[in-house]
Amino acid sequence: MKRKIVQAFSAIITNANIQGFLKGTIYKGKFKNICVPGLNCYSCPGALGSCPIGSLQAVLGSYKYKISFYVSGLILLFGGLLGRWICGWLCPFGLLQELLYKIPIKKVKLKGNLQKLRWIKYVVLAVFVIILPLFVTNIAGYGSPAFCKYICPAGTIEAALPLILADSSLLLGVGWLFFLKVSIALAVVISSMIIFRPFCRILCPLGAIYGWLNKISLYQMEIDTDLCTSCGRCQEQCKLDIEIYKNPTSAECIRCGECIPVCPTQAITSGIKFRKKPQSTEDKII
Amino acid sequence: MKRKTIYGMSIIIIAVGMIIFGIFREEAVDVFNKAIRICLECIGIGWLL
Asked: Is the CB of residue B48 less than 8 Å away from at least one CB of chain A?
């Protein structure tokens, strides 16, 4: 419940330009200089900040730069501090998928070979966010924001649909690309009803970056090996089916914390901890 | 201090340096200019308005 409140608060704060939804316009103020930590389309009428993945492609695709210190630095800062806690607690598109998952129909867990689908997001990051914007350029030297253009369902749901609803003249620009994107968005919406956060797990390039940073971020999940009995209750509770007692720094863990209260020995903790746990008395004697 | 914490702190220090360098290179201006226009290409409709 506490997490849902934080997620809702984050979604509202990052999309607080309410009049944009009514007028079919977007916010053009100074906050757009800064990227928000989660995936949130900057063409969304409500968006106050910039999407880190959209901004990364914009700078990489610019004829002036080709390396983005500013946006990469912001993503590293967010991820270095919190890792995928951002996905679990701050990302508006993650919240949308979780709300869809609450629809009471049969659920499916991604197990066994299906878990390998997670590698797709790393390919999406490399190909659509980095390689295509960098190397496939137009005559003026600008690269195409390939992830936003061909894949991102957040852009379709948060930006394209509200803008078309507010200004039907935009329908004149609709073509095969729009139908491709609507199909992907529909697939994500429907699969979110039966699989927990499928976009975050399979396609999200931001989740791929934060997943790497989960290993070293200041915010960590930790297992007290003296207390853990490897009973597996944490994994049973985990909607992402992570063996948290074996791998608390898993790149897939969104730090939702649902495993913490179910641990019978309170072996799981989370937070920002700077110091090592003091050695037990036995260890010291040995 | 934990080794992981040292790595995390190093990443954050590097990140802050990159942000400052990026601001000096006026990358933030590019981000701003992109973000204040409805990017129709980005949302699957057409080209930049």
From this structure: no
